[in-house]
Amino acid sequence: MRSVALGLVVALAVSGCARFDDRLDSPFTPAQGPGMGAPPPSAPPGQREPDQPPTTSEPAEEPAEPGPCDDPDPAVIATCLEPAVAVAGIGEKALLAEEGGRIRVVSVDADPEDFGRVDPRGGRVAAVAPSPDFAEDRLVYVLVVGDGPTRVERLARGDAPRTVAELAPAASGGLAFVDDLLTVAVGGELLRFPDFTGVGRAERPEVLARDLGEVRGLCTVDDEVFLTATTDRGVVARTPDRVVWTWPEQRAVGGCAALPDSLSVALPDAERVDTLATSGGAAQGQPESRAEERYGRLTGLTALTEGVLLAGTTNKNGGEPVGTDDRAVILPDAGGGGEARV
Predict the structure, then answer these.
(1) pLDDT of residue 158
(2) DSSP 3-state of 26
């Protein structure tokens, strides 16, 4: 936002002179007339005063009627989506993956733009992640789960996707690059591919952890990875080797967003995002809720620059969708109101 300050100073200098009543020095003083400060002469008797030209003004333009995909909430940056199951930050923008396979780029100051599409082949998209060298190679990786083998697809703008890995069938999973290594959660396992450099196939995975529950999302900060999962004891947020927090009363969880001093978790059934203060990967105190019951089923979650959180909704999957669902929305700070926006 720009502000322009305009200062205007006007100085008036008034000078006068004394005049003596000496008629020889001032023999004649003309009377004021038109052009000399006096009003113009009146029209002769019986003659009308000339009409003044009518003043005209342009009619004000009426604001355009909002369209069916125009959401009145200024925090909403994309509307009329299919269920937005996953988002991944790319600086001030984000990749948004819809369940049916469409990948978009969204941001706070531009309309969504299509990046590409993968074919779920009867399954669904579960996760999306940019290449570690996205600024140069513009490659995106997509995880497809459901019907048949779990697939990792590599996608370039305007090109057909290519399968780089096929893994065991699973109903859920997560995808991220941890310390530049492709890392995939399939069912209850966490795998990484140390030999994969972005060319060819991703093979010979290493198992980082097992028995994690049904993993629903991965998020990273520096070289540390966090995951969200559903278990028979409720929802859990954890690292591969330790639990960070549990929600025993919850049975559904979405993605997560990790920052150096916090971990945020999407809870679709509770229609909110919980944020934990963290230190050394451990929780510090109770979680704070964001946007509770404001946008419905918040599921996809990521962090943009300066710690701004972006969420995607899945209200068309078991929620109560409004006319502009599904949506991508900038979340308020923890404890803030739904109108807050960065």
Answers:
(1) 85
(2) coil
For 161, phi and psi rounded to 5 degrees?
A: -65, 155
Other Cβ atoms within 10 Å of 142 Cβ, number: 25
Coil, strand, or helix at residue 119?
Answer: coil
Domains along the chain with CATH numbers: 76-330 (2.120.10.30)
What's the pLDDT at 155? 97
H/E stretch holding 137 reads helix 134-137
Q: Return the higher-pLDDT residue of 157 and 44.
A: 157
The CA distance from 161 to 22, in Å, is 104
Angstrom distance (rounded) from CA 50 to CA 283: 84
Radius of gyration of the chain, Cα coordinates, nearest whole angstrom? 33
Token pair for 286: 């109770």
- Residue 239: strand, helix, or coil: coil
11 or 232: which leads in pLDDT: 232
* Residue 328 vs residues 75, 93, 96, 260: alpha-carbon distances, Å: 9, 12, 8, 24
* 30 has pLDDT over 60: no
For 82, 268, 278, the CA distances from 308, given in Å and listed in that order, are 23, 19, 17
Contact 291, 331 (CB under 8 A): yes
Estimate to the nearest angstrom the gap between the alpha carbon of 182 and the chain centroid.
25
328-330, strands of its sheet edge to edge = 76-78, 328-330, 309-313, 298-303
CA–CA distance, 339 with 289 (Å, rounded to integer):
15
N residues, the chain: 342
